[in-house]
Protein backbone atom coordinates (compact mmCIF):
# COMPACT_ATOMS: atom_id res chain seq x y z
CA UNK A 1 0.00 0.00 0.00
CA UNK A 2 1.41 3.37 -1.08
CA UNK A 3 0.87 5.07 2.27
CA UNK A 4 2.71 2.44 4.24
CA UNK A 5 5.69 2.68 1.98
CA UNK A 6 6.08 6.25 3.20
CA UNK A 7 7.64 9.24 1.55
CA UNK A 8 9.64 7.36 -1.00
CA UNK A 9 6.83 5.54 -2.69
CA UNK A 10 6.85 7.93 -5.61
CA UNK A 11 10.16 6.43 -6.68
CA UNK A 12 8.30 3.29 -7.56
CA UNK A 13 6.51 5.03 -10.36
CA UNK A 14 7.91 6.27 -13.58
CA UNK A 15 6.60 9.51 -14.99
CA UNK A 16 3.76 7.86 -16.88
CA UNK A 17 2.46 5.99 -13.87
CA UNK A 18 0.74 8.22 -11.38
CA UNK A 19 0.01 7.14 -7.79
CA UNK A 20 -3.63 7.88 -8.51
CA UNK A 21 -3.75 4.85 -10.80
CA UNK A 22 -2.63 2.67 -7.95
CA UNK A 23 -5.34 4.16 -5.74
CA UNK A 24 -7.94 3.47 -8.38
CA UNK A 25 -6.73 -0.07 -8.68
CA UNK A 26 -6.90 -0.56 -4.93
CA UNK A 27 -10.39 0.93 -4.87
CA UNK A 28 -11.47 -1.41 -7.66
CA UNK A 29 -10.23 -4.40 -5.67
CA UNK A 30 -12.03 -3.16 -2.56
CA UNK A 31 -15.17 -2.59 -4.57
CA UNK A 32 -15.11 -6.13 -5.95
CA UNK A 33 -14.75 -7.48 -2.45
CA UNK A 34 -17.58 -5.24 -1.25
CA UNK A 35 -19.81 -6.76 -3.93
CA UNK A 36 -18.92 -10.29 -2.80
CA UNK A 37 -19.55 -9.41 0.82
CA UNK A 38 -22.71 -7.43 0.02
CA UNK A 39 -21.54 -4.35 1.84
CA UNK A 40 -24.01 -1.97 0.21
CA UNK A 41 -27.14 -0.45 1.60
CA UNK A 42 -29.74 2.03 0.42
CA UNK A 43 -30.65 5.32 2.06
CA UNK A 44 -33.95 6.99 1.27
CA UNK A 45 -34.47 10.71 0.81
CA UNK A 46 -38.04 12.05 0.85
CA UNK A 47 -39.45 13.90 -2.15
CA UNK A 48 -42.00 16.46 -1.03
CA UNK A 49 -44.99 17.99 -2.79
CA UNK A 50 -44.28 21.72 -2.50
CA UNK A 51 -47.95 22.61 -2.73
CA UNK A 52 -49.21 20.31 0.01
CA UNK A 53 -46.00 19.96 1.98
CA UNK A 54 -46.33 16.17 2.17
CA UNK A 55 -44.04 13.31 1.22
CA UNK A 56 -44.92 11.76 -2.13
CA UNK A 57 -41.97 9.39 -2.52
CA UNK A 58 -38.31 8.71 -1.90
CA UNK A 59 -35.10 8.61 -3.87
CA UNK A 60 -32.95 5.61 -3.03
CA UNK A 61 -29.27 6.44 -2.69
CA UNK A 62 -26.64 3.74 -2.39
CA UNK A 63 -24.01 3.70 0.38
CA UNK A 64 -21.08 1.41 0.92
CA UNK A 65 -20.76 0.29 4.55
CA UNK A 66 -17.32 -1.13 5.11
CA UNK A 67 -16.38 -3.64 7.79
CA UNK A 68 -15.64 -0.98 10.38
CA UNK A 69 -19.06 0.55 9.70
CA UNK A 70 -17.49 3.35 7.73
CA UNK A 71 -20.06 4.79 5.33
CA UNK A 72 -18.71 5.65 1.90
CA UNK A 73 -20.79 7.93 -0.29
CA UNK A 74 -21.58 7.07 -3.91
CA UNK A 75 -19.57 10.01 -5.22
CA UNK A 76 -16.49 8.10 -4.06
CA UNK A 77 -17.16 4.83 -5.85
CA UNK A 78 -19.95 5.12 -8.44
CA UNK A 79 -17.73 6.83 -11.05
CA UNK A 80 -15.20 3.99 -10.82
CA UNK A 81 -17.99 1.42 -10.77
CA UNK A 82 -19.20 2.93 -14.04
CA UNK A 83 -15.81 2.82 -15.76
CA UNK A 84 -15.09 -0.73 -14.66
CA UNK A 85 -18.59 -2.00 -15.38
CA UNK A 86 -19.06 -3.05 -11.75
CA UNK A 87 -22.08 -0.74 -11.73
CA UNK A 88 -23.98 -3.46 -13.57
CA UNK A 89 -23.75 -5.82 -10.60
CA UNK A 90 -24.21 -3.09 -8.01
CA UNK A 91 -27.13 -1.69 -10.01
CA UNK A 92 -28.88 -5.04 -10.11
CA UNK A 93 -28.59 -5.26 -6.37
CA UNK A 94 -29.92 -1.70 -5.98
CA UNK A 95 -32.97 -2.47 -8.14
CA UNK A 96 -33.82 -5.59 -6.19
CA UNK A 97 -33.13 -4.07 -2.78
CA UNK A 98 -35.41 -1.09 -3.50
CA UNK A 99 -38.17 -3.54 -4.45
CA UNK A 100 -37.56 -5.66 -1.38
CA UNK A 101 -37.76 -2.58 0.83
CA UNK A 102 -41.01 -1.34 -0.69
CA UNK A 103 -42.52 -4.79 -0.17
CA UNK A 104 -41.40 -4.86 3.44
CA UNK A 105 -42.99 -1.48 4.13
CA UNK A 106 -46.12 -2.61 2.35
CA UNK A 107 -46.30 -5.86 4.29
CA UNK A 108 -45.93 -3.91 7.53
CA UNK A 109 -48.84 -1.68 6.57
CA UNK A 110 -46.71 1.45 6.20
CA UNK A 111 -46.98 1.92 2.45
CA UNK A 112 -49.46 4.13 0.60
CA UNK A 113 -50.48 3.40 -2.98
CA UNK A 114 -49.50 6.87 -4.14
CA UNK A 115 -45.89 6.52 -2.92
CA UNK A 116 -42.90 5.54 -5.05
CA UNK A 117 -39.19 4.94 -4.75
CA UNK A 118 -36.82 6.38 -7.33
CA UNK A 119 -33.85 4.29 -8.35
CA UNK A 120 -30.80 5.76 -10.07
CA UNK A 121 -29.83 3.78 -13.15
CA UNK A 122 -26.47 4.50 -14.78
CA UNK A 123 -26.11 4.79 -18.53
CA UNK A 124 -23.88 1.76 -18.50
CA UNK A 125 -26.76 -0.37 -17.21
CA UNK A 126 -28.73 0.33 -20.36
CA UNK A 127 -26.07 -1.39 -22.43
CA UNK A 128 -26.21 -4.43 -20.19
CA UNK A 129 -28.28 -7.27 -21.57
CA UNK A 130 -31.81 -7.35 -20.24
CA UNK A 131 -32.03 -4.32 -17.95
CA UNK A 132 -35.78 -4.16 -18.53
CA UNK A 133 -36.11 -7.85 -17.69
CA UNK A 134 -34.11 -7.37 -14.53
CA UNK A 135 -36.52 -4.65 -13.43
CA UNK A 136 -39.56 -6.76 -14.39
CA UNK A 137 -38.18 -9.75 -12.51
CA UNK A 138 -37.52 -7.73 -9.36
CA UNK A 139 -41.03 -6.25 -9.47
CA UNK A 140 -42.51 -9.71 -9.92
CA UNK A 141 -40.34 -11.37 -7.31
CA UNK A 142 -41.62 -8.91 -4.72
CA UNK A 143 -45.16 -8.67 -6.16
CA UNK A 144 -45.05 -4.92 -6.66
CA UNK A 145 -47.10 -2.55 -8.76
CA UNK A 146 -44.77 -0.91 -11.33
CA UNK A 147 -46.03 2.52 -10.29
CA UNK A 148 -44.15 2.17 -7.00
CA UNK A 149 -40.88 2.10 -8.90
CA UNK A 150 -39.39 5.05 -10.80
CA UNK A 151 -36.16 5.15 -12.75
CA UNK A 152 -33.81 8.14 -12.70
CA UNK A 153 -31.57 8.53 -15.71
CA UNK A 154 -29.08 11.24 -16.53
CA UNK A 155 -28.81 13.40 -19.60
CA UNK A 156 -25.72 11.54 -20.76
CA UNK A 157 -27.95 8.65 -21.69
CA UNK A 158 -29.62 10.76 -24.33
CA UNK A 159 -26.41 11.00 -26.26
CA UNK A 160 -25.83 7.25 -26.37
CA UNK A 161 -27.09 4.46 -28.57
CA UNK A 162 -30.37 6.20 -29.24
CA UNK A 163 -32.52 3.41 -30.68
CA UNK A 164 -31.67 0.90 -28.02
CA UNK A 165 -32.10 3.36 -25.16
CA UNK A 166 -35.41 4.73 -26.45
CA UNK A 167 -36.68 1.18 -26.93
CA UNK A 168 -35.85 0.24 -23.34
CA UNK A 169 -37.32 3.43 -21.93
CA UNK A 170 -40.53 2.85 -23.89
CA UNK A 171 -40.73 -0.70 -22.56
CA UNK A 172 -40.41 0.61 -19.02
CA UNK A 173 -43.05 3.23 -19.62
CA UNK A 174 -45.47 0.70 -21.10
CA UNK A 175 -44.89 -1.41 -18.03
CA UNK A 176 -46.00 1.51 -15.87
CA UNK A 177 -42.59 2.51 -14.54
CA UNK A 178 -42.18 6.29 -14.45
CA UNK A 179 -39.00 7.85 -15.76
CA UNK A 180 -37.18 10.89 -14.40
CA UNK A 181 -34.38 12.84 -15.93
CA UNK A 182 -31.88 13.54 -13.15
CA UNK A 183 -29.51 16.50 -12.66
CA UNK A 184 -31.20 18.28 -15.53
CA UNK A 185 -29.16 21.07 -17.02
CA UNK A 186 -25.72 19.75 -16.12
CA UNK A 187 -25.19 17.36 -19.01
CA UNK A 188 -25.44 17.48 -22.74
CA UNK A 189 -29.04 16.91 -23.54
CA UNK A 190 -30.50 18.18 -26.70
CA UNK A 191 -33.98 19.52 -26.32
CA UNK A 192 -35.16 17.65 -29.40
CA UNK A 193 -34.11 14.41 -27.78
CA UNK A 194 -35.82 15.32 -24.54
CA UNK A 195 -39.03 15.19 -26.55
CA UNK A 196 -38.17 11.77 -27.99
CA UNK A 197 -37.84 10.20 -24.57
CA UNK A 198 -40.91 9.03 -22.66
CA UNK A 199 -39.92 10.98 -19.55
CA UNK A 200 -42.52 12.20 -17.10
CA UNK A 201 -40.43 13.93 -14.45
CA UNK A 202 -37.64 16.45 -14.71
CA UNK A 203 -35.29 16.98 -11.77
CA UNK A 204 -33.57 20.35 -11.79
CA UNK A 205 -29.98 20.02 -10.64
CA UNK A 206 -29.29 21.80 -7.39
CA UNK A 207 -26.58 23.96 -8.95
CA UNK A 208 -29.34 26.03 -10.57
CA UNK A 209 -31.17 26.85 -7.36
CA UNK A 210 -29.88 30.06 -5.72
CA UNK A 211 -29.33 29.54 -2.00
CA UNK A 212 -30.52 32.80 -0.50
CA UNK A 213 -31.18 35.17 -3.34
CA UNK A 214 -34.60 36.72 -3.66
CA UNK A 215 -33.46 38.66 -6.72
CA UNK A 216 -35.86 37.86 -9.54
CA UNK A 217 -33.12 37.70 -12.16
CA UNK A 218 -31.24 34.93 -10.30
CA UNK A 219 -34.29 32.74 -10.61
CA UNK A 220 -34.88 33.20 -14.33
CA UNK A 221 -33.08 29.98 -15.25
CA UNK A 222 -35.04 27.91 -12.74
CA UNK A 223 -38.22 29.55 -13.96
CA UNK A 224 -37.50 28.61 -17.58
CA UNK A 225 -36.65 25.01 -16.67
CA UNK A 226 -39.88 24.67 -14.69
CA UNK A 227 -41.81 26.05 -17.65
CA UNK A 228 -39.92 23.83 -20.10
CA UNK A 229 -40.82 20.77 -18.05
CA UNK A 230 -44.45 21.76 -17.81
CA UNK A 231 -44.71 22.54 -21.50
CA UNK A 232 -43.52 18.98 -22.17
CA UNK A 233 -46.16 17.73 -19.68
CA UNK A 234 -43.56 16.71 -17.13
CA UNK A 235 -43.63 17.04 -13.37
CA UNK A 236 -40.75 19.11 -12.05
CA UNK A 237 -38.66 18.38 -8.96
CA UNK A 238 -36.08 20.76 -7.52
CA UNK A 239 -33.02 19.05 -6.05
CA UNK A 240 -31.02 20.34 -3.11
CA UNK A 241 -33.64 22.48 -1.41
CA UNK A 242 -31.93 23.71 1.73
CA UNK A 243 -33.64 26.94 2.74
CA UNK A 244 -37.16 28.20 3.34
CA UNK A 245 -36.49 30.99 0.84
CA UNK A 246 -35.82 28.40 -1.83
CA UNK A 247 -38.92 26.47 -0.93
CA UNK A 248 -41.11 29.55 -1.14
CA UNK A 249 -39.63 30.78 -4.38
CA UNK A 250 -39.89 27.36 -6.02
CA UNK A 251 -43.50 27.09 -4.98
CA UNK A 252 -44.15 30.54 -6.40
CA UNK A 253 -42.60 29.47 -9.72
CA UNK A 254 -44.93 26.49 -9.88
CA UNK A 255 -42.29 23.83 -9.29
CA UNK A 256 -44.17 20.68 -8.23
CA UNK A 257 -41.81 18.88 -5.87
CA UNK A 258 -38.72 19.48 -3.81
CA UNK A 259 -36.01 17.29 -2.37
CA UNK A 260 -33.29 18.45 -0.05
CA UNK A 261 -31.87 18.88 3.42
CA UNK A 262 -34.62 21.36 4.33
CA UNK A 263 -37.09 18.47 4.31
CA UNK A 264 -34.78 15.59 5.17
CA UNK A 265 -31.34 14.16 4.50
CA UNK A 266 -31.09 10.72 2.94
CA UNK A 267 -32.31 8.42 5.73
CA UNK A 268 -31.31 4.97 6.82
CA UNK A 269 -34.08 2.46 6.35
CA UNK A 270 -35.16 2.56 10.00
CA UNK A 271 -35.51 6.34 9.91
CA UNK A 272 -37.43 6.18 6.63
CA UNK A 273 -39.68 3.57 8.19
CA UNK A 274 -40.35 5.86 11.15
CA UNK A 275 -41.27 8.65 8.73
CA UNK A 276 -43.69 6.37 6.88
CA UNK A 277 -45.21 5.44 10.21
CA UNK A 278 -45.79 9.12 11.06
CA UNK A 279 -47.27 9.64 7.60
CA UNK A 280 -49.59 6.70 8.14
CA UNK A 281 -50.88 8.09 11.45
CA UNK A 282 -51.63 11.44 9.84
CA UNK A 283 -53.59 9.85 6.98
P1 LIG B 1 -28.28 12.31 -7.43
O1 LIG B 1 -29.01 11.17 -8.03
O2 LIG B 1 -28.45 13.63 -8.08
O3 LIG B 1 -28.74 12.35 -5.90
C1 LIG B 1 -28.87 13.52 -5.16
C2 LIG B 1 -27.65 13.80 -4.32
O4 LIG B 1 -27.77 15.06 -3.70
C3 LIG B 1 -27.47 12.78 -3.17
O5 LIG B 1 -26.10 12.62 -2.93
C4 LIG B 1 -28.10 13.54 -2.01
O6 LIG B 1 -27.63 13.13 -0.75
C5 LIG B 1 -27.66 14.95 -2.31
N1 LIG B 1 -28.54 15.93 -1.70
C6 LIG B 1 -29.84 15.82 -1.43
N2 LIG B 1 -30.34 16.94 -0.90
C7 LIG B 1 -29.32 17.81 -0.81
C8 LIG B 1 -29.20 19.16 -0.33
O7 LIG B 1 -30.16 19.78 0.14
N3 LIG B 1 -27.97 19.73 -0.43
C9 LIG B 1 -26.90 19.07 -0.93
N4 LIG B 1 -25.73 19.72 -0.98
N5 LIG B 1 -26.98 17.81 -1.40
C10 LIG B 1 -28.17 17.18 -1.34
P2 LIG B 1 -25.43 11.20 -2.75
O8 LIG B 1 -26.35 10.29 -1.98
O9 LIG B 1 -24.06 11.40 -2.23
O10 LIG B 1 -25.37 10.64 -4.23
C11 LIG B 1 -24.57 11.26 -5.20
C12 LIG B 1 -24.82 10.72 -6.57
O11 LIG B 1 -24.42 9.36 -6.67
C13 LIG B 1 -26.29 10.72 -6.96
O12 LIG B 1 -26.71 11.99 -7.37
C14 LIG B 1 -26.26 9.71 -8.09
O13 LIG B 1 -25.82 10.29 -9.28
C15 LIG B 1 -25.22 8.72 -7.62
N6 LIG B 1 -25.93 7.57 -7.01
C16 LIG B 1 -26.42 7.42 -5.78
N7 LIG B 1 -27.00 6.23 -5.61
C17 LIG B 1 -26.89 5.59 -6.81
C18 LIG B 1 -27.30 4.31 -7.30
O14 LIG B 1 -27.94 3.50 -6.60
N8 LIG B 1 -26.97 4.02 -8.60
C19 LIG B 1 -26.31 4.90 -9.39
N9 LIG B 1 -26.04 4.54 -10.66
N10 LIG B 1 -25.92 6.11 -8.97
C20 LIG B 1 -26.20 6.45 -7.70
MG1 LIG C 1 -30.84 10.79 -8.65
MG1 LIG D 1 -30.09 14.22 -8.95
MG1 LIG E 1 -27.65 15.94 -8.50
Helix content: 40-55%
Q: State Rg.
A: 20 Å
Order of helices and strands: HEEEHHEHHEHEHEHEHEH
Bound molecules: ligand C2E, magnesium ion
> How many helix segments?
10
Instruction: Output the strand order for the largest sheet.
Output: 1-2-4-5-6-7-8-9
Number of strands: 9
- Major sheet description: 8 strands, mixed, barrel
Mean pLDDT over all positions: 91
Write the layout of secondary structure elements.
Elements: H1 19-36, E1 40-49, E2 55-65, E3 71-72, H2 74-84, H3 87-107, E4 117-120, H4 123-126, H5 131-141, E5 149-154, H6 162-175, E6 178-184, H7 191-196, E7 201-204, H8 220-231, E8 235-238, H9 244-252, E9 257-258, H10 269-282
Parallel strand pairs: 2-4, 4-5, 5-6, 6-7, 7-8, 8-9
Antiparallel strand pairs: 1-2, 1-9, 2-3
Helix pairs in contact: 1-2, 3-5
One magnesium ion is lined by residues 59, 120, 152, 182.
Amino acid sequence: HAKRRGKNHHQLFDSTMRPVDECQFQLEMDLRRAIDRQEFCLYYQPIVCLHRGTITGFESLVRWKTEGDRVISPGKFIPLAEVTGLIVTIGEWVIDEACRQIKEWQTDGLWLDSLYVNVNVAGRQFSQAGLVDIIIQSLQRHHLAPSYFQVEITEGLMMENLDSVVRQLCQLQELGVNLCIDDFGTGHSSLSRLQLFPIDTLKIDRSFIPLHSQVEKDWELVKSIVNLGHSLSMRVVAEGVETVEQQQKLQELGCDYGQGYLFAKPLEQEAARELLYQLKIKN
